[in-house]
What we know:
By secondary structure, the protein is an alpha+beta fold. It has a three-stranded mixed beta sheet. The protein contains eight helices and seven strands. The model has no long low-confidence stretch (mean pLDDT about 90). Helix 2 (about 20-40) runs parallel beside helix 5 (about 135-155), helix 4 runs antiparallel to helix 5 and helix 4 (about 105-130) packs across helix 6.
Amino acid sequence: MPDGSLVADDLARRFYGGDLLALLDAYLTLLLDWHTTLFAYGIALESHQQNTSLVLDEVAGRPRLRLLLKDNDGPRVNTVRLAAVLGGDAADLCGFDDRRILVGGDAPVADVFATITVHLCAGALAFELARLGRAPLPVLLGQLRARLTEAVDRLEAAPGAAAAVLRHRVLDADRLPVKAMVTAGSLLSKRRSGASDVNKFYVTGPNYLAPGR
Length: 213
């Protein structure tokens, strides 16, 4: 902003009484509830910052926050989970030209959930807001873990143990996947890296959401 403040500061003033953490909390609640719900169907979207926008207005004097998603051209879809939830109707949803979208297990879908939704759409905000002095990093990461835990808990009744998968692979994991696009996108032979998709070739890093990290 011209005065040096963040767009997030202005949105917090306009819609949340100046409480930036309240705005962030509303955003995280919506973001994580949406993407964990999709995960229960076996879907993870390539919904990084360029593909996700906030839509804010007021209804009856109260803030209403929505997500505007676009350009999700590289999702992962676990056809086994999707078919188990939707039955035969799932076949009509899987006619993708790029067959790399389709997978037969939860792991590739959880990797996209971690690297896109958790790292880029949530974790990056926590680290940057902490760097700018808006709140201590442990507070911001604690808020993220709390909202993610609540979203995962809401999946307890979902079929296929979706909640247990996300706890094991994200919340309670010692390490999380991290994109390795520099290596995967180089001129090295893909036989050396094993990368079939430069956007989904991973190394791992410490789980910054783990308590005490």
